[in-house]
Amino acid sequence: MGKKIKKEVEPPPKDVFDPLTIESKKAATVVLMLSSPEEEILAKACEAIYKFALKGEENKATLLELGAVEPLTKLLTHEDKIVRRNATMIFGIMASNNDVKKLLRELEVMNSVIAQLAPEEEVVIHEFASLCLANMSVEYTGKVQIFEHGGLEPLIRLLSSPDPDVKKNSIECLYNLVQDFQCRTTLQELNPIPPMLELLKSEYPIIQLLALKTLAVITCDKESRAMLKENQGLDYLTKILEAKDLGDLHVEALAVVANCLEDMDTMVLMQQTGSLKKLLSFAENSTVSDIQKNAAKAITKAAYDPENRKIFHEQEVEKCLVTLLGSDNDGTKIAASQAISAMSENSSSKDFFNTQGIPQIVQLLRSDNEEVREAAALALANLTTNSPSNANAAAEADAINPLINILSSKRDGAIANAATVLTNMAIQEPLRAIIQNHEIMHALLGPLRSSNTMVQSTAALTVAATACDMEARTQLKNCGGLEPLVELLHSKNDEVRKHASWAVMVCASDELMAVELCRLGALDILEEINLSVSRKNKFSEAAYNKLLNNNLSLKYSQTGYLSSSNIISDGFYDYGRINPGTKLLPLKELCLQEVNDQRAVLLVNNKSDTSPPPSMEDKSADAAYGRNISSSASLRRGSKEKANFRFSPGFGSPTEEKSEPASGRNTVVSRGAAKEKGSRHWLIKSG
Predict the structure, then answer these.
(1) 606 pLDDT band (50/70/90 cuts)?
(2) 110 near 145, Cβ under 8 Å?
(3) Do 547 and 523 contact (CB within 8 A), yes or no?
(4) For residue 630, what are the CA distances in angstroms to 81, 302, 637, 666?
(5) 133/669 Cα distance (integer angstroms)
(6) What is the mean predicted confidence (pLDDT) over 285-297?
(7) Cα distance between residue 643 and residue 658, in whole Å
(8) Mean pLDDT estimate for the chain
(9) How many angstroms separate the CA atoms of 498 and 504, rounded?
(10) What DSSP assignment string belongs to 579-593?
């Protein structure tokens, strides 16, 4: 054998860096490693950063300050799968930080994140990419970016993922996205209902809950409700409601059912299958306030349809609602009252609540919760509208006093509802008298001065319903209610203007009130309203005529005539024709003015023992106007010297036509006044 020769060891190449193991306890050092071209270093750096970010919000903020986000975004599209996976995991965690979210939106990385949802990617990448999107979708701008980059379709596909975390993140992201109408509309085209219904079978409650919440939002649209029904969604929901161990899902399941009940064909289907009866029984017997509240809300939404109301009545929904009124939870009481309000559009239901329901609702008018009082007043308003028997039932349950107290509420809705109930009651004279005894006019002062048009309108209508006698009108005048009522005539709201005109018409039913309303400018405002085609209404015209007919001196001065129904009484005076916009001075002011050479004012006084005003006893007045006329015969004799006596066919009464008075006006006196035996007519100075 030959001698062995030892091989010489070749020295390492001079241009190759020896392997180096680095241990770093500084995040800043690891962040610098994100710029390395070596895949192994990138992967390890990302892994370290993921573990660091997972420890808490402060660490996420630190990484942001160190500038880790921007280089990490570039790694989302790295060729190496491990690097890409680790970078995606970091963003799944980091995106919960608001500042990181903001920066990610600015860097427009949404397209890169959505790309990680591709079917060929690993489940772990799906998990953290969907988690990132779920965090980003909380804010509106994030929703827009996800939608615009086509995120809906891959998210729906991932609802069928075998991994529960992927399902949870995807359905959470979709729930956030469907809050936006545009996303919801586009989602319908992607047939999302079947995979969402499958999630209801999940063993994880959070996934079931998110699926129900998402279904509750999308079934607000009719097309989605139709899809739900086609895919037997109601069966899924009914099974959840019947399962006692799924009690934590009942509230959300009811929210979906509430949407479905809006469609009449769904109502019919549920009635036929017995599901509707089960639902009502479930709501009535439940001890969970949120379940009862949501059930009442479901009934309310469905009861806006007349056919649905009919079906509900056949299922005796009224008994369920009366039971819910007795709940200890204010939210349930409110929802039940609102449901009764909706159901009261059905006449049979309205009759049912006459004896069962109205007493309980009246009790709620005394609640410490203003929202409860408002809802109860709304229910009572609808129940008493066009129903004298229900108005009587409410009065018998002592509703008047709490209703009047509600008129001083801070909630405009409560005030308007209470005023409506009082108006419905006041239509009946016995109830009107009771309401008047509760100082209704003073209570209406605040609502009449409200800035809310709904409150103004209902308050004016209540005035119209309650000011039907002189005592009530006097109360309104004494408490200062006429001023705000007249002010409402200026309203730009048609309903307010109409009801204010109606109230003025009622208040102008006697002469004293008519004169006062004219003094406050009601006649001028109504005249202006009636000149406008768009603003006038039948009540403004009627109010204008009523004011004139109960203020004959003004009517005669403005129009130059009186009708056969206008009977002149004590205090009528003929001032002469006044121009539009000119105020007619009161008689007292005319008497106090100095005598001048203008046309005389004719005063009619029916009391035979009445002496002329002191100013008319002045001798200078006699010199200016001639002697006083003490009877109708004397009036005619005196008139022959300065006027022609004629018969007016228009009035069927004797009239007096002055040849050429200074005002160029004819003076007309009705026969009823001229024939008064022993009546006196005084000539006083004119303005």
Answers:
(1) low
(2) yes
(3) yes
(4) 120, 77, 11, 22
(5) 89
(6) 87
(7) 4
(8) 82
(9) 10
(10) -TTPPPPPHHHHHHS
Cα separation, 413 vs 560, whole angstroms: 47
How deeply is 312 buried, as exposed, middle or buried, from its count of CB atoms within 10 A (0-12, 13-18, 19+)?
buried
User: What's the pLDDT score for residue 389?
Assistant: 95
- Cβ–Cβ < 8 Å for 521, 482: no
Between 102 and 645, the higher pLDDT residue = 102
Q: Tell me the C-alpha distance between 330 and 337, whole Å.
A: 11
In a 13 Å sphere around the CA of 245, the CA atoms on its Cβ side amount to 2
pTM: 0.71
What is the number of structural domains in the chain?
1
- Separation CA 665–CA 661 (nearest Å): 6
Locate 587 and state its tokens: 């008689």
Q: How far apart are CA 61 and CA 59, in angstroms?
A: 5
In a domain, 614, yes or no: yes
**Spatial CA neighbour of 46 closest among 31, 57, 61, 67:** 31
**3-state SS assignment for residue 682:** strand
Residue 411 falls inside a structural domain: no
Distance (Å) of CA 45 to CA 28, 67, 453, 570, 592: 11, 14, 66, 106, 104
- Coil, helix or strand at residue 434: helix
d(CA 259, CA 449): 40
Tokens describing residue 129: 């990419």
Inter-helix orientation angle 233-242/250-260, to 10°: 140
- What is the amino acid identity at position 556? Y
Give the up-direction half-sphere exposure of residue 234: CA atoms within 13 A in the CB hemisphere: 25
Query: Could you give the CA distance from residue 225 to residue 256 in angstroms, rounded to a whole number?
Result: 9
Sign for the CA dihedral angle at 556, 561, 562, 563 comes to negative
- Tokens encoding 405: 């107290």
Distance of CA 18 to the CA centre of its chain: 76
Question: Residues near 182 by Cβ (< 8 Å), separated by ≥ 6?
Answer: 147
Minimal CA–CA distance to 567: which of 584, 586, 552?
Answer: 552
Taking the CA atoms of residue 307, residue 308, residue 310 and residue 312 in that order, the dihedral angle to the nearest 10 degrees is 170
In this structure, is residue 612 part of a structural domain? Answer: yes
3-state DSSP assignment of residue 646: strand
CA distance 586 to 590: 6
Q: Is 489 domain-assigned?
A: no
- Residue 641's domain comprises 551-580+592-684
Instruction: Report how far residue 112's alpha carbon sits from residue 102's, in angstroms, rounded to the nearest whole number.
Output: 16
Q: How far apart are CA 538 and CA 520, in angstroms?
A: 21
559, with CB counted inside 10 A (0-12, 13-18, 19+), is: exposed
Cα 59 to chain centroid distance, Å, stands at: 47
What pLDDT digit, counting tens, does each position of 456-506 carry?
Answer: 999 999 999 999 999 999 999 999 999 999 999 999 999 999 999 999 999
Position 378 scores a pLDDT of 97
